[in-house]
Amino acid sequence: MPSVDPYGLPPxxxxxxxxxSDAPRRLGLDTSREFSLIIEPEHGALWLLCPAxxxxxxxxxxxSVIDTSARQIGDELxxxxxxxxxxxxxxxxxxxxxxxxRAEKSGEPLPDVVASELAAWEALLSIPGSMDRNQIxxxxxxxxxxxxxxxxxxxxxxxxxxxxxxxxHDFRLAVDxxxxxxxxxxxxxxxxxxxxxxxxxxxxxxxxVSIQLKxxxxxxxxxxxxxxxxxxxxxxxxxxxxxxxxxxxxxxxYRHDDDSRYSEGYxxxxxxALVPVDSEFPRLTTESxxxxxxxxxxxxxxxxxxxxxxxxxxxxxxxxxxxxxxRPLDSGDxxx
Length: 336
Prior knowledge:
By secondary structure, the chain is of the alpha+beta class. It contains 8 helices and 14 strands. The strands form 3 sheets. Strands 6, 7, 9, 10, 11, 12 and 14 form a 7-stranded mixed sheet that branches. Strands 1-2-3-5-4 form a 5-stranded antiparallel sheet. Strand 6 and strand 7 (176-183) form a beta hairpin. It is elongated and about 80 Å long.
């Protein structure tokens, strides 16, 4: 059956049959750049060739599967893209087909086309999977605080949510930093990652917002999907802030296309608490460890993760003595 591809790319079954034969084969394509395919059964290799002409032969860095190089055939120098990795030659062929189509339609230099196509495939493979339960619970805690911040300070306060940008702390208010810790535990046990997570910056104060959640079961509660929807609806009057909100969700790994996976409801197990990180707070820092370790020993510690218990500490977040950004709401919290 004749190929229906506009550039003469045959079905992969023909390539597969050629790879199973004994002799190498070269197939010309119906393209303005004189693309051709070389099939080398002896090496289990598949290549796309294009006369180099006067274009630069600078090549993008090869991946573990795709190789790019120059190849001399007779008197003519060619740009060669392909692979000798036989288990993935079907996928390699589809990649090469993408290069042909992009090159013919865009008119861009071939090295740029290959780089763009490689980037597209790498982006496809790097799309994060669904968030796990710990990530869901952690994000629900941050959204509970974000709701108060937005209600108290206005939609522009989305900028206070700095955690998704990999900043040191989750929220940066006018003079206070907040680190949000959320747990499903019956006690206020929270994981601290690193020696600098609970270090204050400059003259700013730092507090932990301790949130305990539990599955809502058949009772009232809110899912991550619905929490995000409610905040997005609140921000819909401010398109700039709504975009910032969605960008932060994407940075965390939340994809709206997957929202059906985030339908489990949660509710508060206890009232959230605000715990100042002060001299009474149980924390490990480089400074505290330097009092018991030599500097050479301290430099050899690569990773520190520990759990703190905050039962009975701090101030309930239903108190009016909290910072303005997180003071109680007359209109109600994101969830209870």
